[in-house]
């Protein structure tokens, strides 16, 4: 079944469940070079009069390199049947394996960037803003526990330029 582009303003979903509980694959690149990673931190809303999706990526991730050099990224959302694929993509590096080959996920091109055929919904986003997180910017220092062993994230805000479902 092919993806159908829809107006995101007419859609209803719970972003807390979709992002935080169901998780998503964050992907950047093109069909020649891309990487994907599982994420469960993000935001959706309106900023600068545009529908936006905000995500964060640790600077150590392979996906980070591609987020830095590409204008677009996707957030692909899946049914629970794909939880094991999401677990794999969140625990293995694209530097060490082909995540699509290992999980059976099929990459597809949407608006010049990459998503996955098995996704139930995909947001194609064009980067509008990016900012490195820094220790001094944390007002609640208890949150620094997330960075005791790992590097800080970089924040990416993208305009949702395409919303696709099946």
Descriptive overview:
The protein is α+β, with helices and mostly antiparallel strands and 166 residues long. Helix content is 17%, strand content 43%. It has one domain (4-165): Pnp Oxidase, Chain A. It has helices at 15-21, 62-69, 83-91, 99-103, and strands spanning 4-6, 24-30, 33-39, 42-47, 50-58, 72-77, 107-110, 113-116, 121-132, 153-165. Strands 1, 2, 3, 4, 5, 6, 9 and 10 form an eight-stranded antiparallel β-sheet that branches. Strands 7-8 form a two-stranded antiparallel sheet. The protein starts with a strand and ends with a strand.
Provide a compact summary of the structure.
With 166 residues, this protein is of the alpha+beta class.
Domain count: the total is: 1
CATH superfamily: Electron Transport, Fmn-binding Protein, Chain A
Let me know the number of strands: 10
* Structural category: alpha+beta
Tell me the helix content. 10-25%
Q: Would you tell me the overall average pLDDT?
A: 96
Strand-and-helix sequence, N→C?
Answer: EHEEEEHEHHEEEE
User: Spans of 5+ residues with little confidence (pLDDT < 50)?
Assistant: none
**How many individual helices?**
4
Distance between the amino and carboxyl termini: 7 Å
The CATH class is identified as: Mainly Beta
Shape: globular
The percent range for strand residues is 35-45%
The largest sheet, given as strand count, sense and whether it forms a barrel, is: 8 strands, antiparallel
